[in-house]
Amino acid sequence: MSDERAIGVFDSGVGGLTVARAIFDLLPHEPILYVGDNGRFPYGPRPLEEIRAFGLEIAGYLVERDVKMLVVACNSIEVAAIADVAEAHGVPVVGVIDPGVRAAVRATRNGRIGMIGTVATVESRAYDRAVAATGAAVELSSRACPVFVEHVEAGDTSSDGLLEAARVYLEPLVREGVDTLILGCTHYPMLSGMVQMVMGEEVVLVSSAEETAKDVYAVLRNASLLRETVDDPRHAFLTTGDPLQFARVAHHFLGPEVDGVLPVSVRAVEGIAWS
Predict the structure, then answer these.
(1) Helix (H, G, I), strand (E, B) or coil at 8
(2) Residue 117 pairs with which residues in a beta bridge?
(3) What is the Cα–Cα distance from 244 to 68, expressed in whole angstroms?
(4) Residue 79 has what pLDDT?
(5) Domain range holding 31?
(6) What is the rounded distance in angstroms from the CA atom of residue 7 to the CA atom of residue 28?
(7) What whole-number distance in Å separates Cα of residue 173 and Cα of residue 142?
(8) Cα-based distances in Å from 30 to 34, 181, 204, 232, 275
(9) What are phi and psi of 71, to 5 degrees?
């Protein structure tokens, strides 16, 4: 039986669109309801408890909209709230950290893996725990890259100032000899060209988006939640910030799949908080 309901995908802003893109490619018949919390961006410098509250609020909103599963397309939300989100709602929940770690462990040749993320993600040590859980004989080196997200949200992926910041953030990882780098924030794949240039062509960049999409497929298949209708799905994109700014960036990365962006008020999201 076909389940016509949407997949709920949410992030602090536009970064989760990289995950949405991967889901589009792997599951072209599945509708997506996307919420970007640009009105409260950035998440990375915030305390984890505040990020947790935001994540629970948006998850609650999406469940009220009758999504059939939740994709936490934000590393900061995942480290702060994914266990609580999974416990609070009666729908499957998929995150981005474990898929990225699995891909990196498979890719590394010398056992030295780097990870770049927000301050909240790095300080949580969630990637360290995920790597340890694999049991692989690898070493993880992490670096916070706080200004990356701000540039992506502004639509900047190539300025001289951004390149200089990338060199400052990444050159210690180059010196440590990592051969695989996890892009530990869903905004960062939008900077993959610049990151690759600084890290060197021999370093494998790992985005969790494609691996996360595979997990989404597996969960939907195993729970008999796939949409079997073959006509084009209707996607919806909402933001708590400026819809025009969101649309400009989204069109750049997603193209025609973004057929308008709708505003959703933070108050409306906060009014459906789950604890």
Answers:
(1) strand
(2) 144
(3) 28
(4) 93
(5) 7-95+210-270
(6) 12
(7) 8
(8) 13, 30, 30, 8, 29
(9) -115, 110
Please indicate whether residue 74 is annotated as part of the active site. yes
pTM reported for the whole predicted model: 0.90
- Of the residues 20, 33, 69, 74, only one is catalytic, namely 74
Question: Residue 122 belongs to a domain with what CATH number?
Answer: 3.40.50.1860
pLDDT in tens, 121-163: 999 999 999 999 999 999 999 999 999 999 999 989 999 999 9
Q: State yes or no: pLDDT of 265 exceeds 90.
A: no
Q: Nearest Cα to 237, choosing from 4, 2, 7? A: 7
Identify the active-site residue in 33, 101, 185, 213: 185
Token pair for 121: 């993600």
**Does 1 reside within a domain?**
no
Q: How confident is the model at residue 272 (pLDDT cuts 50, 70, 90)?
A: low
pLDDT tens figures, 63-72 = 999 999 999 9
Q: Which of 189, 208, 227 is the last residue of a domain?
A: 208
Residue 158 identity (one-letter amino acid)? S
pLDDT digits (tens, 9 = 90+) for 82-113: 999 998 888 999 999 999 999 999 999 999 99
**Same domain, yes or no: 43 and 133:** no
Using alpha carbons, list the distances in angstroms from residue 242 to 147, 217, 236, 266: 20, 31, 15, 12
- Whether residue 75 sits in one domain with residue 103: no
Q: What is the pLDDT of residue 253?
A: 77
CB 111 within 8 A of CB 131: no
Q: Does residue 87 share a domain with residue 73? A: yes
**Contact indicator for 125, 222 with CB cutoff of 8 Å:** no
> Is-catalytic flag, 145?
no
Total domain count for the chain?
2
